[in-house]
Specification:
The chain is an alpha+beta fold. About 20% of the residues lie in helices and about 40% in strands.
């Protein structure tokens, strides 16, 4: 079970741990790199709620989230509707990439037209 080697005097030496070699070290290095990249990707993306509108009867709320993917991407906007009572649920109804409300403002506008109709307006999107 142990790797024992005779010494010069004929005695048996102590146990020597097996070595991983360069392939084992490279595997650990690649695994560490993958974990580091996943950590960096998850920390670079931010999501912020930028607008909220409640239906006229107060039963459903529409929420707009702005997703910032970093310096080389445009903002994304995701619209969710949710109900808090009696059964809590949350549903994504729309998503826009690079949307603009006007020539000088990013985002989308949400407005309830009735108890069951949500109007989402924007000037342009990609």
């Amino acid at each position: 079970m142990y790797d024992r080697h005779p010494t010069e005097t004929g005695n048996i030496s102590s146990y020597e741990a097996p070595r991983l070699g360069w392939r084992g070290c490279a595997g650990f290095g690649i695994l560490g790199l993958i974990f580091a990249m996943c950590f960096l990707v998850s920390t670079c993306v931010s999501t912020v709620e930028v607008m909220r509108a409640t239906s006229p009867d107060g039963a459903i709320t529409a929420r707009v989230f702005e997703v910032n993917g970093g310096a080389t991407t445009d903002f994304s906007y995701v619209v969710y509707i949710n109900r808090n009572w009696p059964i809590r649920w949350n549903h994504q109804v729309a998503g826009y990439y690079g949307a603009g409300r006007s020539s000088c403002a990013y985002g989308v506008n949400v407005k309830w037209v009735g108890n069951d109709t949500l109007l989402i307006t924007y000037k342009d999107a990609k």
